[in-house]
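Throughout our pipeline, every protein is held as a single compact record rather than as scattered files. The record that follows is passed on verbatim for readers who wish to inspect the format.
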Amino acid sequence: MSDLSGILFNVLSGAISILIAIDVHECCHAWAAYQLGDYTTKDRVTLNPLAHLDPVGTLFMGINLFYGAVFRSSLPLIGWGKPVVYHPHLLRKKGRVGMAIVAAAGPVANVVTAVVFALPIRLGVPFTSASIYLLQLCYTIAMTNVVIAAFNLIPIPPLDGYSVLLWIVNSIRAGWAYRLYVSLSRLESYGFQALMLLIMADWILPFSILSIAMRPMIWVAGLIVFGARW
């Protein structure tokens, strides 16, 4: 594979991987909300990627994708899809339970998608001149879904991990858990700013705080997806 064809393949496979990952992530958020009774999300229960792409988030992902394909590195830019807007008061599961289910649906969908696309690798399909491109594409799709699942499970609002963490803490009947829940709830209005600060810190610091936070989740998800080979 020449340098130019390698770059083109990396850009194409990366674009396909990101589209699939965002597609299933946002679609399953909408599907979970719809199944729990919020029928306003019906239009987002689709695998049409055009329904889930955010213009600015897509631009950032494109810049990162092209930079990574050309320079074999990455920029601390975070892309995103169009968030699914749902109404917690319409959910049959009230309070933090319903919100956690809707939040967890996206990362879980990404891990399931990664498992499916990793099957040829786990089954030991041999690398040949005919299969190498397909296997590389499957690996890229699987890894992209693993990374997006891990990133979204960071417990900082507005990421999915925040809603899951609040549900876990709220379900513990203890004084310390209640105090922690109240403290975490107060952070909700500042979560986006905190996330932006962490992203900007990646530009300055010699290490990535986000990568450190994601590492355990990537390891667990990778173990689920790729098994003992991970």
